[in-house]
């Protein structure tokens, strides 16, 4: 089937112009500051984490503009992106403002997707989105439900980020922002410790809490997509109560872990969950196909850009190479991870 060969990026972010103008006005985090570089050029920097090294990260059109997203997709042969607002979402706003802003950002994202191009010769759009829930302290249930209803009624919003709507049939993207405490280290390692380790571990904790709370028993049709291949959860799940292994196979994981060995291992752990249901625990190489069905390609765009604009992005090249090289995955498994699984999950 032609659509099986489409490449779909399920982990792709943006900061909308509306959010960027709010960041520019703010003096507390998250904020955008303007400053002069050593070469005299003015630049804007986005500061979203406490004590961020280098005074935040350079921010420009790649974080904001739809044309830049589309150019990036074209350069890397990505047909479809499911775009989500990047962290820290609306966590910094009081409840009423967060709710109003969520509604506006969701309308903006629906327009961003619906007025974008189609995949050539198909009726499928190139851009879909995850709406945003204003999950802040003091938010009322009614405000959350209104936002879920708005997202469900938006034809191009196929999921939401960070929340559990049990009725709306939306895919829920669980993505980190806080890491695990101050983890910059004494030497200047840039973002390595908090992002490479802290972020995925935050997701590990969040997903574990969901499993232990019984949410997946109460709402078995909930479809949760975990960022960064579920962080350390596949590695640590057997240290939890043993039935955590079973629940792991109910989750979807992105393939943003940069290594074929890691993807192979993750697909084993997901497949084991399936075996668990049948009473057999031993996973064979052929079972990796079962595990692969719950793994979906992602890029993390626009984070981690290359130094020169002519280069391809490592986050794409390395994550695609990782998929290509997983021992035991068939060509069909790889196509599924690159796009087919997302087409089914998001019903595109
Ligand atoms: O790796 C990532 O996904 C990210 C992200 O989403 N946000 C961020 O600030 N850095 C890295």
Automatic annotation (TrEMBL):
Q: Which GO terms describe its cellular component?
A: cytosol
Any matching Pfam family: Amidohydro_2
**Which keywords does UniProt give here?**
Decarboxylase, Lyase
Q: Which Gene3D superfamilies match?
A: Metal-dependent hydrolases (3.20.20.140)
**Which InterPro entries did the record assign?**
ACMSD, Amidohydro-rel, Metal_Hydrolase
A Gene Ontology biological process annotation? secondary metabolic process
Q: Which PANTHER family match?
A: 2-AMINO-3-CARBOXYLMUCONATE-6-SEMIALDEHYDE DECARBOXYLASE, ISO-OROTATE DECARBOXYLASE (EUROFUNG)
MF terms (GO), sorted A to Z: carboxy-lyase activity; hydrolase activity
Per UniProt, residues of the Amidohydrolase-related domain are 168-348
In Swiss-Prot or TrEMBL terms, this protein is called Amidohydrolase-related domain-containing protein
Q: Which family does it belong to?
A: Belongs to the metallo-dependent hydrolases superfamily.
The scientific name of the source species is Gymnopus androsaceus JB14
């Amino acid at each position: 089937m032609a659509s099986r060969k489409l490449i779909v990026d399920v982990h792709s972010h943006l900061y909308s112009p509306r959010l960027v103008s709010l960041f520019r006005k703010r003096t507390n985090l998250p904020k955008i500051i303007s400053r002069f570089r050593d070469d005299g050029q003015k630049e804007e920097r986005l500061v979203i984490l406490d004590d961020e090294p280098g005074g935040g990260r350079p921010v420009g059109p790649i974080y904001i503009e739809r044309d830049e997203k589309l150019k990036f997709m074209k350069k890397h042969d990505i047909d479809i992106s499911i775009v989500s607002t990047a962290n820290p979402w609306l966590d910094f706003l009081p409840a009423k403002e967060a709710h109003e802003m969520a509604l506006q950002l969701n309308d903006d994202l629906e327009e961003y997707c619906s007025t974008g191009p189609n995949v050539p010769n198909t009726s499928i759009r190139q851009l879909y989105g995850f709406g945003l829930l204003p999950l802040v302290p003091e938010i009322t249930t009614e405000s959350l439900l209104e936002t879920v209803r708005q997202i469900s009624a938006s034809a191009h919003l196929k999921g939401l980020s960070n929340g559990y709507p049990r009725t709306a049939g939306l895919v829920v993207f669980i993505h980190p922002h806080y890491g695990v405490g101050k983890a910059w280290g004494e030497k200047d390692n840039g973002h390595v410790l908090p992002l490479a380790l802290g972020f995925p571990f935050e997701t590990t904790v969040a997903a574990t809490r969901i499993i232990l709370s019984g949410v997946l028993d109460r709402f078995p049709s909930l479809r949760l997509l975990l960022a960064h291949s579920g962080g350390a959860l596949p590695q640590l799940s057997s240290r939890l109560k043993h039935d955590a292994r079973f629940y792991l196979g109910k989750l979807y994981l992105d393939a943003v872990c940069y290594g074929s060995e890691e993807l192979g291992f993750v697909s084993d752990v997901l497949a084991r969950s399936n075996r668990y249901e049948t009473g057999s625990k031993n996973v064979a190489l052929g079972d990796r196909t079962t595990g692969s069905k719950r793994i979906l390609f992602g890029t993390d765009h626009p984070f981690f850009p290359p130094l020169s604009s002519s280069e391809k992005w490592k986050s794409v090249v390395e994550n695609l190479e990782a998929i290509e090289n997983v021992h035991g995955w068939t060509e069909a498994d790889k196509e599924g991870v690159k796009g087919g699984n997302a087409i089914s999950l998001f019903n595109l």
